[in-house]
Specification:
The structure is a homodimer. Chain A has helices spanning 15-28, 43-46, 59-67, 76-79, 99-103, 112-120, 137-145, 157-176, 196-209, 222-226, 234-237, 242-260, and strands at 3-6, 33-37, 81-84, 87-90, 126-130, 148-154, 182-191, 213-219. Chain A is α/β, with parallel strands linked by helices. The mean pLDDT of chain A is 94. The structure holds adenosine-5'-triphosphate (ATP) (2 copies) and magnesium ion (2 copies).
Chain lengths: 261, 261
């Protein structure tokens, strides 16, 4: 059962939109999916209309339980909310922003999420993790816990700037903490063929990443940005929109490749 | 001499684009401006074609010198590169991403930037600080060092989500570290009148922020995203573009309001 992180420290490139719709389509395809929101902003949490309620356990409590070597309660499954058939979400909360301060010097702080994931991974067919726009402790935890990452990239100039930093961090985590880690997919998002810059950046990204760039382009599509306001994924609310079609294609591509291995 | 931070933990909302073009227009208006890049991604640094060279001092060395109570060398002025008449930029470097780990437990870690700014503020008419998409130590440093903040906001659903978290952090910094701190301007960016969501979010933002929302809307304009590839601000390269016009209007609005006070 694959554990995939959606990672890119550049802000606003479509990490949450990708994580949410990818997970939702996987569940529609009959897989049992866990979506973990590891971003203190909690956008994946609100994409399913889940309020970051104090009363329920969130990812912060799960990681704290791992850090304090308690009996591992609450686990990720305890904290997960079922949001659709075959799809559960572990909500984020604002406390996560304080993780670095709270657990920043604890032993093994980089692998708390991995410990929590390893305890529950047999219960799911796919685990997807949304991450914050930074390369701090939370993102390192995501890289340590995952088998592979999906890198959403906007076709903008700054996207190229950030890739070198991201790959350097991936290499370090791979060397020191998680030898299995690989970049499974680079996905071009908010793709707009009318924009000259899109073409230029696309050519550079294709040259740089060779075969890992998905053949699917996620178009700029207003339905994708409208859906969070309704608390449901776009692939559910606007299934025939261009954005939803693209995410279904992406999942199809991924499942075909996994079947081949 | 005002010190303004450009802050919003939501990623990709136009913080760097606003900081860079705002600073460039201020300098064109004859002010002596310092732009500080406090984001480890270094997008404001590359917007002026500055490579994050190891050889030159960057913000990380300045903050480390403050932390280690050295003679304050290098200062912000030592690290600054003159990029246009009346405009200097203090570059960011990748090391900044390690600031929380490196200085995270040092005494006074939240006010290193303020100490560095206070030493040089008399040399400039305006200081503008670009910040990363997070509410961690770097952004707290920015909030502690500034008199006021500009909050760029995209008219998207997630923009509303993040505002409450941002204002909570501003309140805490104001109460504990920087009583002068205020939200000077909220600026709506990538504004697209054809998009229904834009109107909805705009109404909510106007209701929430009342008078602090700028009357200027920064339109979605491809010239703004093309300029970084050329290493110069859009207001210099494409002065008659809609994006550049809007940033000139924004500076005009700010200067008129300052003159009134
Ligand atoms: N293909 C798309 N077309 C149109 N809008 C999109 C698309 N993908 C994402 N968006 C919108 O763009 C904004 C940024 O996307 P999103 O929040 O998913 O990015 P992110 O990388 O998760 O951001 P952050 O770095 O803040 O976590 C959101 O308002 C989202 O609704
Ligand atoms: N008004 C605009 N019209 C079109 N494109 C824009 C506009 N403002 C910014 N952009 C582009 O959108 C992307 C995001 O903007 P920018 O990098 O300035 O945001 P940011 O908030 O600084 O991001 P981060 O959170 O990663 O620091 C960039 O590629 C930029 O060139
Ligand atoms: Mg996100
Ligand atoms: Mg930026």
């Amino acid at each position: 059962m694959p554990v995939w992180g959606v990672v890119n420290q550049k802000g606003g490139v479509g990490k949450t939109t990708t994580a949410v719709n990818f997970a939702a389509v996987m569940a529609k395809e009959g897989r049992k999916v866990l979506l973990i929101d590891a971003d203190p902003q909690g956008n994946a949490t609100t994409s399913f209309g889940l309020l970051r309620q104090r009363s329920r356990a969130s990812l912060f409590e799960v990681l704290t339980a791992v850090a304090e070597a308690e009996n591992g309660v609450p686990s990720l499954t305890d904290a997960a909310c079922v949001v659709a058939p075959g799809l559960s979400v572990v909500p984020a909360s604002m406390d996560l922003a304080g993780l670095e301060a709270a657990l920043g010097t604890a032993v093994g702080r980089e692998t708390f999420l991995r410990e929590a994931v390893d305890r529950v991974r047999d219960e799911f067919d796919w685990i997807v993790v949304d991450s914050p726009p930074s390369l701090g402790l939370l993102t390192v935890n995501v890289l340590a816990a995952c088998d592979a990452i999906v890198v959403p990239m906007q076709c903008e100039y700054f996207a190229l700037e950030g890739v070198a930093q991201l790959l350097r961090t991936v290499e370090i985590v791979k060397r020191r903490i998680n030898p299995n880690l690989r970049v499974a997919k680079v996905v071009l998002t908010m793709y707009d063929t009318r924009n000259r810059l899109t073409q230029q950046v696309e050519d550079e990204v294709l040259g740089f990443f060779q075969g890992t760039v998905s053949g699917v382009r996620i178009p700029r599509n207003v339905r994708l940005s409208e859906a969070p306001g309704h608390g449901r994924p776009a692939v559910e609310l606007f299934p025939s929109s261009k954005g939803s079609e693209a995410y279904r294609e992406l999942v199809k591509e991924v499942l075909e490749e996994c079947a081949v291995h």
